[in-house]
Design a protein that fits this description.
This protein is an alpha/beta fold. Helix content is 33%, strand content 15%. The chain has an 8-stranded parallel barrel, surrounded by 4 helices. A 7-stranded mixed beta sheet has the order 1-7-5-6-4-2-3, with helices on one face.
Length: 537
């Protein structure tokens, strides 16, 4: 920072004052607070020429350049620059909660501990304090962070927004030691931003998942998908069907601990029991539910949806876990049902074809039976009030049964047989979440031509409009694309350790956070962004 010294630079006393001030400035980095009065122009000359006793030399005034936006990942969307010293943690400062904002106590204690300053609770803000406040009419998850007069005030219309403001403060201090003077006005571009983890094929401990939640919170990501049931394992304890649970699994106490931390970091956990495919762990305990083709082939993981017992056991599990997970979302799966991947489903699986006609009329096909299955499972969960999701290859056209209109499309691939482009769903008015397997799929072992995605490629090439492949959908559909999640799939589970997975997804997650929070093209180069992501983690 530069300082202005007014008055002629004559005489050893004033020169010494100038040197001393320059030394202070160099040591303080321009962060000391408190203006000083300016000397009178020509005062030193006037005193010596008259023989009068010299007047004390006033302390020169410090002036500050306009501040720059704080250095954070993701970058803030708006910063009003100001002149001033900014704010940095000091023993005399603390974290306080404004009136009528008692719900922010958790956020206050967290940021106080991270900054190494005391948490003082619901008291008036004093010099050097950080004040957290609820209020205002901004968008959900928005916040304002103002630095003025040696204090910080973070306010927002909800607790999530204030929490994100504390993440901005934490990251700025980690990056530069201070929070710059001025006002940040910030909000997310997309309401759903997160990570999906396949805990079914590979067991991840509760501690590992909790570490990802902490990481997500700092990146302002708010959604963790848990795919905990598949052919290779069923990874959460069950009271209704303990026989399907794998030896390595999370206890319900561990799940509740995960959920408590997620709530603290404003992350919603989205559970998924995938059906009617990917149910191998259930079939292992109940082989009578196995789907069989006309030739007797038993495709792995596919239950016989013409058998009422298949629906009964899945519904038991849905009801049980819908009570365990209090979040606003539920994922029904519905992808890769083998019967619908056959060239002629009706000829290959005649039992399903007969069941479809019996239930939905002479024009019905196997796809209608599968769509009816999806709708019936949705009806089980819907009374909980959760928003329902399903993978894009579980939605079909041209049948006599249509998927329920309230299902959000989780679009992951255009590589499956008969896969429709994203616009096919968007033009029908459906809402969509982007899990583009070209950029956002981290598949252990890199099978089927998958390559581990890089943060650089996401940062430089991908946007939420790029839902399939590398081509964006028209911008007019932007509002229907609710966000994106980065997905870890453990197809070859032993290809990486949990620690390697955590390291491998760190920069891709940071890049994703930038693109779903701030819709503008990043101004920083990838190398600068990567270096910053390392500094603030």
């Amino acid at each position: 920072m530069r300082y202005s010294i007014r008055g002629p630079r004559r005489g050893p006393a004033l020169l010494a004052t100038s040197v001393a001030l320059a030394t202070v400035a160099a040591c303080s980095g321009g962060s000391a607070s408190g203006p000083a009065s300016a000397p009178s122009p020509g005062s030193a000359t006037s005193a010596s020429s008259t023989g009068a006793p010299p007047s004390p030399s006033p302390t020169p005034t410090r002036t500050y350049p306009l501040s720059s936006a704080p250095l954070t990942v993701p970058a803030v969307r708006g910063h009003e620059a100001a002149r001033g010293p900014g704010w940095k943690p000091a023993p005399t400062g603390g974290v306080v909660i404004a009136a009528n904002s008692g719900g922010l106590a958790d956020e206050g204690r967290l940021i106080a501990g991270e900054l190494g300053i005391p948490y003082r609770g619901a008291v008036a803000a004093g010099p050097g304090d950080v004040e957290l406040a609820l209020g205002g009419t901004g968008a959900p998850e928005s916040y304002t962070l103002a630095v003025q007069g040696g204090r910080v005030r973070i306010s927002g219309p909800d607790e999530a927004g204030v929490f994100y403001g504390t993440r901005t403060l934490k990251q700025s201090v980690k990056a530069t030691g201070a929070m710059p003077e001025g006002t940040v006005n910030d909000r997310p571009a997309k309401p759903q931003r997160g990570l999906n983890v396949d805990t079914a094929r590979k067991h991840f401990t509760a501690a590992w998942i909790e570490d990802r939640i902490r990481e997500m919170g700092d990146l302002k990501l708010n959604q963790l998908g848990l795919h905990f049931s598949d052919d290779q394992g069923f990874r959460i304890a069950s009271d209704s069907h303990p026989e399907v649970v794998s030896a390595q699994h999370l206890t319900k106490a561990e799940v509740r601990r995960i959920l408590a931390l997620a709530a603290e970091r404003h992350v919603t956990v989205v559970p998924e029991i995938d059906s009617p495919g990917h149910l191998g762990a259930v079939i292992a305990a109940h082989p009578d539910l196995q789907l069989r083709s006309a030739s007797g082939r038993a495709p792995r993981g596919a239950v016989d949806i013409a058998n009422p017992e298949s629906a009964k056991i899945v519904d038991d599990l849905l009801r049980e876990y819908a009570q365990l997970f209090p979040g606003a979302y539920w994922h029904l799966g519905a992808d890769e049902y083998v019967a619908l991947m056959a060239k002629d489903p009706e000829a290959t699986y005649p039992k399903l074809a007969r069941a479809a006609k019996a239930k939905y009329g002479p024009s019905a096909r196997v796809q209608d039976l599968a769509t009816g299955w999806l709708n019936d499972r949705a009806a089980v969960v819907r009374p909980t009030g959760k928003t329902l999701k399903a993978w894009n290859d579980g939605f079909f056209t041209g049948g006599v049964v249509n998927a329920a209109e309230d299902l959000e499309v989780e679009y992951w691939t255009g590589k499956e047989i008969g896969a429709r482009p994203p616009v096919s769903y968007l033009s029908q008015g459906r809402k969509m979440v982007n899990l583009n397997d070209e950029y956002l799929y981290y598949v252990l072992g890199e099978p089927n031509d998958f390559a581990y995605p890089t943060g650089r490629r996401i940062y430089e090439q991908w946007t939420p409009l790029v839902v399939r492949g590398t081509t964006p959908v028209p911008a007019r559909y932007d509002a229907q694309i609710l966000g994106a999640r980065f997905a870890v799939w453990c197809d070859l589970a032993n290809s990486q350790t949990p620690a390697q997975v955590a390291a491998g997804i760190r920069l891709p997650l940071a890049a994703l956070s930038q693109k779903v929070w701030n819709p503008t093209k990043p101004t920083a180069s990838w190398d600068r962004f990567r270096a910053l992501a390392e500094r603030v983690r």
